[in-house]
Amino acid sequence: MDAKHALPVRALVGFLEIVAAVLLGVAAVWAWRRGSVPYELPPSDNPAVPDSVYRWSGPWIGAAFGLVLLAGLALLDAGRRLAEAFTRPWQTSDHGLPVADE
Questions:
Q1: Using CA atoms, how far apart are residues 100 and 57, in angstroms rounded to an integer?
Q2: Are 54 and 40 contacting, i.e. CB atoms less than 8 angstroms apart?
Q3: Burial of residue 74 (number of CB atoms within 10 Å: 0-12, 13-18, 19+)
């Protein structure tokens, strides 16, 4: 693929990675809510006893952290791809400078 066609592909992949990061973020919120379950406690005369407590499920909380990590990496890569697609590429030529005789 030549450079002229590579730029739209980079931009498309960058935008798709942003969509994937949003979906991963939604999945992370879902996993987090699934990992924290509230329990109502019976009434107590002791004021130190709370009315409800949360039970944390390690695999769901770990999955939420992993999904957030993947979303962050996808956003970083999307930024890189979009920057490559929409900025001027580096010039690798000698810019017309005279070449030294060998």
A1: 69
A2: no
A3: buried
Distance CA 15, CA 77 (A): 10
Q: What is the pLDDT of residue 101?
A: 61
- Is residue 52 classed as helix, strand or coil in its secondary structure? strand
Which residues lie below 8 Å from residue 7, measured CB to CB, with a gap of 6+? 84, 85
pLDDT of residue 64: 97
* Mean pLDDT within 45-69: 91
DSSP tag of 94: -
Helix, strand, coil percent values for the chain (each to nearest 5): 60, 10, 30
d(CA 50, CA 73) in angstroms, rounded, equals 39
